[in-house]
Amino acid sequence: MIFLSCMNKHYFMLENALKPSKDFKRTAIQSVGAILLFIFTYIFLIVVSVALTVVCGYLGVKLMEYFTNFYTILLGLGMIGFGFLILFFLIKFMFKHKKTDRSHLIQVTRIEEPKLFAMIDEIISAVQTDFPKKVYLSAEVNASVFYDSNFWSMFLPIRKNLQIGIGLINTTTVNELKAILAHEFGHFSQKSMKVGSYVYNANSIIHDILYDNEGYNQVTGKIAEANSYLGIFVLASDKIIVAMQEILVKVYGILNANYSKLSHEMEYHADAVAGHVVGSKPLINSLLRMQLANQAFDTVLSYYNRKIEANIKTENVYPQQLVAMNFIAKANKLTYSNFFPEVNLSYYNRFNKSKLSFNHEYSSHPETGDRIRRLEQLNAVVQDEQDGLAMDLLVNKDNMAAQLTGFMFAGVDYSNEPIDQSAADFEIDLIGQNSDHAFPDEFNGYFDFRNPFIKYSPSDFEKPVITTNLSIEELFGEENLSLIYELNALEADYNVIDRLDSGLIEAKTFNYNGLKYSKADSRKMLEYLNAEMKTKIERLDDIDFKIFEYFRLESREQDVYEPFEKLAIAYQQIANKFKEQQMIYTDLLNSTSFLQSVNHPNFIKNKMVLVKKEEKKFKESILFILDDNQYSGSLKAEERLRLEEYLNHDYKYFGADLYFAEELKVLFAALEDYVNVITQTHFAAKKALLVFEAGLIAPVKHQQSA
């Protein structure tokens, strides 16, 4: 009886979870209203264009009947074509066949993967929804539901497909994967998913009307070139089409904003379904770890991207994904539970200190923090503890992983037959690379974002040391690290508000720190953010100075003051020069930005004057680094040869209305070599100083490095 009572209680809770909330219903109604507005507007424009076609066709025929000569025939044909051009422009998307590329996916069946399908059966039974039309495996860290959506699918019943990323399966437990799939099947139970199909197709219509006009423009261009009389009607039809485009874009903006709100409610609803089917905790764990799993996956792909020149790849990226995830987790001192790192919300948001939002008008998903808070409020207990590895559900896991890895590497052009690297060799190389490119652990990542203090002169080393009461733990603690993240967030928020104020971002209102502001408040907000940034910078500058004084005292007490002074001054010289070099690099790169677009030859010639002016400073800086021994350690032999070859020529880059592609290739190769050399030199000087300072804290650990 107790068992039946618990079952009935769970069934009742699931029934409630499946029922849409008031907010869900309200946003669904608003989205349907926005869709109806879009459909009505589109049909209205079609009716107007049909009427225009009929009227213009009638007038054109009558003109040719009553005044039959060459010019009236042209005018009559122009009037008939005028209406047809507008009508065809609005309906041309219906006649396009778009084939969806699914070559990067693997369709799996019940026979091939019985354990995975058994889990899907269990979830479908609990959620009371339909089985997916097809189940696909993909490479990435994600899972999603999608339609085979086209224009006619808005009017015909269609089943949804399920896509599961191996990168996700590889980094979750069975329960966590079950929670994620229950979330996706929560979407299967939502009739409002149909709204998404309408929005998708409305977006396709808008995209076609605004951008996919190459064929249409070629036809109208030929008509206009054929005869100036016909060109008049083409020009007139273009004016009307532009007006229609503007109307549809505005209506679509309303549609998209309403659907975005509905998408958020759909996500909350699907989370509630998953929580009641599996429990809140597994879904919370997977949501928080997904960022880390993605970071690890990207780390692996970036690693092998750098190995293309060395002709190194792997048969299976997923063992490497686990290696990278564990490496990142250990570096950040994360705890482990059920094979995987445990990520809390504090760690998840450690870099995200932004207080700016736009009501998520342009996002399909709510903030992860908001989703987690709702799941915690739901507090649904775990129904069935299954903490094994989700990857073990796949009978053919190695084959599937290798196949998807092959898809990712298929487009890579290796100079020789590539060598497949093992996960063990990857781990050794990854740790070695990190050791080479990381600063000592004692600084807790502080100098990943800040450079050492350099506002001193040689005479300052003769002054008495200012004693600080702060310990190493306080200097490099979470409070000071948080200051860095807050400054980064302020700078990012400032840039966004500045773009809003300049009209580059379209929004009438924004939220900051929980309060709502209008676009008219953006100037005052910029002033406020600027003042906040100034305060943070002053505090961080003070911390940098205290760190410098701390190590000045330590080096004196440990009788290594002279080598400390030498390293500090050497770094100061490199750092000051590095700022100047960065400006030279940026100025030349920015001066070539016009190369990314099509321009008139006279415009290009004028811009090339600025390029040559900036190039003069660039070449002088290259001469400096080639002659200075401080840069020799970072300058590879092939880089030196390329830079010397570049200096030996005075390239023109453009002439006779043509770009000289090979000369531009040499220029950008020189820019890449230059920035690599100056960055590596700055890093080496910075690391030498920091390793020495770390040796003052932990002398045994850093004795060899020092």
Describe this structure in words.
With 706 residues, the protein is mainly alpha-helical. Among the domains are: 13-98 and 204-257, no CATH class; 558-706. The protein is built from 22 helices and 13 strands. The strands form 5 sheets. Strands 1-2-4-3 form a 4-stranded mixed β-sheet. It has a 3-stranded antiparallel β-sheet with strand order 8-10-11, with no helix packed on it. It has a two-stranded parallel sheet with strand order 5-9. Mean pLDDT is 85; it is low at 1-12.
Keywords:
64% helix; disordered N terminus; three-stranded antiparallel sheet; mainly alpha; 706 residues; four-stranded mixed sheet; 22 helices
List the helices and strands and how they pair.
Layout: H1 2-18, H2 22-66, H3 70-91, E1 106-108, H4 114-127, E2 135-138, E3 143-146, E4 161-165, H5 166-169, H6 174-188, H7 193-210, H8 214-226, H9 228-277, H10 280-306, E5 312-313, H11 318-331, E6 336-337, E7 340-341, H12 345-348, E8 356-357, H13 368-378, H14 397-409, E9 419-420, H15 423-437, H16 472-475, H17 478-501, E10 509-512, E11 515-518, H18 522-557, H19 561-591, H20 601-627, H21 637-647, E12 654-655, E13 658-659, H22 661-697
Parallel strand pairs: 2-4, 5-9
Antiparallel strand pairs: 1-2, 3-4, 6-7, 8-10, 10-11, 12-13
Helix pairs in contact: 1-9, 2-3, 2-7, 2-9, 3-9, 4-6, 6-9, 6-10, 7-9, 8-9, 9-10, 9-13, 10-11, 10-13, 11-15, 17-18, 18-19, 19-20, 19-22, 21-22
